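Appendix B. One record, verbatim.
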Amino acid sequence: MEDEKYETLVTTNEDNTRTKVLIKVEKDAITELIVVESGSSNTLVRLKGKMKPSELDKVVNEHKHGG
């Protein structure tokens, strides 16, 4: 998935599964987050709203080690 409106946040390739997390940023806020996973099963998650990048960092850090 390539689109100049979206920025790739994370790309992984583990155990025959590729995952890509993309974000759309407008006026210093994340307005859309998309997670695409392909492998033995395919997944697409799309979240729309307004989130400060610092809020996303907080969520990622809280769940970094499965916590």
